[in-house]
Amino acid sequence: MAVKLGQAIMRLTPDIVLFGGDYIDALAGLAHLDALLQHIKGTCPMLAIAGNHDRFFGMKVVRETMQKHDVQWIEGRSVELVVKDVGIRIDGNMAVAGDFNPAIRILCLHKPVDLKKLPVSYHLAFAGHLHGSQCVLWQNEHGLFPGRIFYKWNRLKAQVGDCRYYISRGMGDTLPIRYNCPKELLVVDLETNKR
Description:
Layout: H1 2-12, E1 17-19, H2 30-40, E2 46-48, H3 52-57, H4 59-68, E3 72-73, E4 78-83, E5 86-92, E6 104-108, E7 124-127, E8 138-140, E9 143-145, H5 147-150, E10 157-160, E11 163-167
Parallel strand pairs: 1-2, 2-3, 5-6, 6-7, 7-11
Antiparallel strand pairs: 4-5, 8-9, 10-11
Helix pairs in contact: 1-2, 2-4
């Protein structure tokens, strides 16, 4: 799977790759993560945050694996980039207020939160964590059900003020059972802001 995912990323020729956490469910998963990162190393700026699975199974070893392949670990911090002459600021798993005025502000979260409660606004926000609740019986503009009944952000996207908020169903699962909830690699075109 790591090679197929790496090939899919390479075909997209991305300007930035953001990793949103939950890379391993056991230490044996590190080999797959390592293979993926080796395949896409040097493609473009790559940034990563931690997920709850990584905290449980070993965030230090995940971070070291990422850094070995030139992935910037932005957990709890921010980074500023210039891509195609556009200034971009990406905050990793926390909202950071301050005197910055990049053209695009991005929040990369693992667990979805209510963006209205943050001390700063964003143009784009990404989250995951919920995996779409892995079982979707029906879907509408309000979200993926029945998971949406329990989790406000169990949806694919939302508009929160001026921010486009994307919530990924992710690529992996501790319990490998999904119904009507395909795994996904989330791709967003910053020029059109479309998923």
